[in-house]
Amino acid sequence: MTPLSLGRDRLVQFDGVQNFRDLGGYPSRFGGAIRWGHVYRAAALHEMTPADRALFDELGIVTVYDLRSSIEFEEHPDPVESISVPVLGRFMAANGQPDFSEIVGHDHGVAFMTQMCTNMVDWGAQEIGFVLTGLADADRVPAVFHCTAGKDRTGIVAALLLEVLGVDRELVLDDFQLTERYRAADPDSAVFQRMLGFGMPPEAAAGALGAPRVMMGDVLDGLDARYGSVERYLTTEARMTTDAIDRLRVSLLT
Fold first, then answer.
1. What residues are paired with 33 via a beta bridge?
2. Cβ(231)–Cβ(132) below 8 Å
3. Tally of domains within the chain
4. In CATH, what number is assigned to the domain containing residue 223?
5. How far apart are CA 200 and CA 95, in angstroms?
6. What are phi and psi of 41, to 5 degrees?
7. Residue 179 in contact with residue 19, Cβ under 8 Å?
8. pTM to 2 decimal places
9. Are 24 and 10 contacting, i.e. CB atoms less than 8 angstroms apart?
10. pLDDT number for residue 6
11. The domain containing residue 166 runs over which residues?
């Protein structure tokens, strides 16, 4: 089964916003499926057109979580009220800019992003828990969370949300991989050019901006090995309560 075999194309088609996807429809082992029109994942919102803003308003979204860094948040602010939740903020503050000198090939780019997603899990747990706890509040959905490309920071939050809602891991990986359909590694894009600005060759940048399922699979397998399970990670490292997880399932599952 693939996400798009569920009977509905989950992409919401904007003019200036890429990779804006509905997380509804995935079946849960707890019974039922994730509700359509409640939680969305997306790339950056700052290039919304007037038509995009009208469509955004039609979706009835009441909460926006911006997962980008404070610098990104300030350079390209969202056109709608949003909550800044920099999921890599603690890691970057403690470790500074990563070393890009050895990221020279496609596989190096993939490995680099795999490690950054692992760093996000380990260092950004409280921020991830904050977003998922917010999504458990029925008065704060529909909601969208986004970063710049809508792939890695957004992908981690989406993967952990789907897992705790009881979605099979293969479908979780399908959802991550959908970014390769909706946001290709365009050499002319601002995100690609930013990677080149870090000193990455084009092949490495393409690898870093891809969304191969093995990458997210490795990150989630590592999480299981270090913390036992996604739910245990969320109730310990991410400081979610079991009540919040129960409310999340009640609110978002049919």
1. 27
2. no
3. 1
4. 3.90.190.10
5. 19
6. -125, 150
7. yes
8. 0.91
9. yes
10. 42
11. 3-252
